[in-house]
């Protein structure tokens, strides 16, 4: 479903790309044998009983809650935030997010949103011990108990965590929260197609069967050929890195994909940025960013490359009206669709950036839908798995995030630090 097109001959020779692809192809078997590669088969090999329970829980939440507070950070936050922002939050239950920062003003604003509303909590933490969501959970749980009393409050708490261990697991068992599992062999940032992402996405009214079907279709396409586009994308990235292009910009012309870009940034940044290696991932949301970062991409240091998400068909449109006065001189666009102008902006930008010396990779996607988003999620998970191995790092751990935590605990006076 996802198609890669590119013209990179002035940066990478066909022989260099072939060599990198050959290296990458040799790594494919490790997608089955390495630890933490449960994401590879997740689109087809998921817990069907739990999947049905997710749908039931979503129905209950839709019937008794105006708001679902999703508490979680990193991989326990960004995937479902990305999908819900991209496809829209349905009318039944508004999803709001907490526990992904420590900002007091933001916390108070979120609490204000709950006044006079019926609400529930989905607390998501694989380890069950992450500070930001644990603090938020403590606060929101107390508010929920104040509103509903303990018995009803506990029926409104849905916990997504490890199947067997951790503080959140133990508390959930003790208090009888409905529990969902983060599989042992799937890391946080690869977990959007597990209960981590699926429950909030289903509560937002998005069809999780279709999302999974999109991922399954893409999986089938990628695993059935070792000359697939996700592997090629991983190979191109690493060839470009060898040539000094060490910053990648994910570029979208769909503003709904801002959080998808955040998810992508985490997926690539946390998977590859280790052992003093990696491509620094960043993103732009165009055409907005053309008026801020466009100058740098066109004409700043030549160490950037761009990966552009190009949707073939818009999901909505608006016809630009004729204006009898034509003060803005735009009547030459009257009768044209806004999507047509957006498309031309993309083409113009790609041409400009290429001529400015920025390598541009194009990823073509049919349209922005649950199906294509499922496919795109899988495409990038596969690509980063291969790309991380090509780089020679473990794409599934994140040892670097411990440093700030240890410092923070010491400064806060946590016993033992
Ligand atoms: O990708 C990861 O593993 C991390 O970003 C984690 O998701 C994040 O640190 C949150 O961890 P947890 O789910 O254990 O609270």
Instruction: Note the total helix count.
Output: 16
Terminus-to-terminus distance: 49 Å
SSE series: EHHHEHEHEHHEHEHHHEHEHEHEHH
Q: What share of residues is helical?
A: 40-55%
What is the number of E strands? 10
Ranges with pLDDT <50 over ≥5 residues?
Answer: none
The backbone outline, from C-alpha atoms, is: globular
Instruction: Write out the distinct hetero groups bound to the structure.
Output: 5-phosphoarabinonic acid
- Provide the residue-averaged pLDDT: 97
Which strand order does the major sheet show?
1-10-9-7-8
Largest sheet: 5 strands, mixed
| Class by SSE composition | alpha/beta
Radius of gyration over all CA atoms, rounded: 23 Å
Strand content: 5-15%
Q: How would you describe this structure in keywords?
A:
single chain, 417 residues, alpha/beta, five-stranded mixed β-sheet, five-stranded parallel β-sheet, 10 strands, 14% strand, binds 5-phosphoarabinonic acid
């Amino acid at each position: 479903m996802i198609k890669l097109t590119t013209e990179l001959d002035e940066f990478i020779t066909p022989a260099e790309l072939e060599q990198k692809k050959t290296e990458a192809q040799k790594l494919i078997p490790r997608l089955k044998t390495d630890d933490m590669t449960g994401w590879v088969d997740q689109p087809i090999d998921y817990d069907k009983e739990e999947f049905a329970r997710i749908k039931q829980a979503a129905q209950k939440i839709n019937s008794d809650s105006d708001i679902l507070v999703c508490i979680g950070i990193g991989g326990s936050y960004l995937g479902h935030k990305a999908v819900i922002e991209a496809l829209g939050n349905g009318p039944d239950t508004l999803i709001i997010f907490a526990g992904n920062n420590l900002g007091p003003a933001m916390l108070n604003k979120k609490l204000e949103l709950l006044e006079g509303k019926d609400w529930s909590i989905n607390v998501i933490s694989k380890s069950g011990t992450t500070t930001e969501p644990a603090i938020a959970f403590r606060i929101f749980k107390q508010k929920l108990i104040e509103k509903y009393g303990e018995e009803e409050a506990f029926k409104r708490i849905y916990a997504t965590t490890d199947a067997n261990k951790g503080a959140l697991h133990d508390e959930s068992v003790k208090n009888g929260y409905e529990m969902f599992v983060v599989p042992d062999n799937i890391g946080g940032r690869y977990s959007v197609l597990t209960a981590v992402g699926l429950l909030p996405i289903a509560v937002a009214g998005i069809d999780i069967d279709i999302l999974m079907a999109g991922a399954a279709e893409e999986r089938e396409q990628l695993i059935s050929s070792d000359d697939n586009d996700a592997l090629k994308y991983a190979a191109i990235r690493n060839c470009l890195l060898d040539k000094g292009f060490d910053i990648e910009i994910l570029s979208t012309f769909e503003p709904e994909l801002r959080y998808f870009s955040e998810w992508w940034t985490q997926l690539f940044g946390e998977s590859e940025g280790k052992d003093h290696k990696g491509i620094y991932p960043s993103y732009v949301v165009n055409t907005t960013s053309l008026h801020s970062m466009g100058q740098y991409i066109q004409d700043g240091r030549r160490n950037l490359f761009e990966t552009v998400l190009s949707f073939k068909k818009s999901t909505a449109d608006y016809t630009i009206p004729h204006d009898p006065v034509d003060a803005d001189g735009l009547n030459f666009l009257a009768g044209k669709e806004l999507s047509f102008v957006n498309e031309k902006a993309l083409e113009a930008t790609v041409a400009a950036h290429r001529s400015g010396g920025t390598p541009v990779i194009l990823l073509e996607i049919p349209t922005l839908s649950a199906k294509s988003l499922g496919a795109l999620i899988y495409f990038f998970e596969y690509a980063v798995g291969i790309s991380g191995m090509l780089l020679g790092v473990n794409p599934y751990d994140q040892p670097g995030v411990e440093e700030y935590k240890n410092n923070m605990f010491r400064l806060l006076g946590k016993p033992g630090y």
